[in-house]
Amino acid sequence: MKSYVSAALALALCCAGAARAQPQAQGDWPCRQVKVQSVAVAGVWTGPSIDAAQKSWRDDAALGDLVARISARRTPMETTQKLIGDFAAASGDKRKERLTTLFSGVYATLEAERREVLAGLDRYGAKQKQLAERLREETQTMRAEQDKPTQDAQKLKDASEALQWDLRIFDERRHALSYVCETPALIEQRLGALARVIEAAID
Predict the structure, then answer these.
(1) How far apart, in Å, do the first and last CA atoms of the chain sit?
(2) DSSP letters along 42-103, please?
(3) Tell me, what's the pLDDT at 13?
(4) pLDDT digits (tens, 9 = 90+) for 150-160
(5) Are 74 and 113 in contact (CB under 8 A)?
(6) Is the backbone of residue 81 left (phi > 0), alpha (psi -120 to 50) or beta?
(7) 128, burial (CB in 10 Å: exposed 0-12, middle 13-18, buried 19+)
(8) What sign has the CA pseudo-torsion 28, 29, 32, 35?
């Protein structure tokens, strides 16, 4: 029983310490990747300015549907390339203008999605910090119980089980982050790939 409890204490201190070690500048950000709040248009797009097209794409239902379809990461790039090619061919002499408007919609859509993911990760990080603090408190409580000359075996067992449960939740959430933290970069990659395809269709 004592070795079991000692292992739980060591793991709790390790997990709680790791959560508190997050750089202050990152706030509640739980990822190892540096948080980049937004993707600059100039970082992915070398085509015409999208300033004039930022609102007009929302007024075109067909264009809006296309934006939604090609922005979705579940849509294969091969399908996306064909959809953009067909759209470019159907645009006639308005090809440049229409494709620029298309990219404006893609940029707005993926940037909004990326911001939602960042906000969700911040919330996730805040909950991890709260759980880490609870683990620290539970660890201290268990240590205090262990140090008593006369221990209450049932109380110690209950405290150990509660600590193990919280540790399991903390660890599962920590492992899930390895995938979720990649999501902002995946969205940025999708945006860059779509920008290149649309720019190629303009030329």
Answers:
(1) 72
(2) HHH--SS--GGGTTGGGG-HHHHHHHHHHHSTTS-HHHHHHHHHHHHHHTGGGHHHHHHHHH
(3) 52
(4) 777 777 777 77
(5) no
(6) alpha
(7) buried
(8) negative
Maximum distance among all alpha carbons in the chain?
Answer: 88
Tell me the residue type at 22: Q
Helix, strand or coil, per DSSP, at residue 134: helix
- Comparing CA positions, the residue from 137, 123, 132 lying closest to residue 27 is 123
φ/ψ of 196, rounded to 5, equals -65, -40
Report yes or no: 122 and 108 within 8 Å, Cβ to Cβ. Answer: no
d(Cα 59, Cα 12) in Å, to the nearest integer? Answer: 54
Q: Do 170 and 128 touch, CB atoms closer than 8 A?
A: yes
Tokens 């404006």, residue located: 104
Predicted confidence (pLDDT) per residue in 132-152, tens digit: 888 888 788 777 777 777 777
As given in the structure block, the two tokens for residue 82 are 């064909």
**Two tokens, residue 145:** 């119980």
Q: Can you give the pTM of this predicted structure?
A: 0.76
- Location of structure tokens 């079991």: 4
Coil vs helix vs strand at 30: coil
Chain Cα centroid distance, residue 168? 22
Distance CA(85)–CA(27), nearest Å, equals 43
Which residue stretches of 147-182 are H helix?
Answer: 153-180
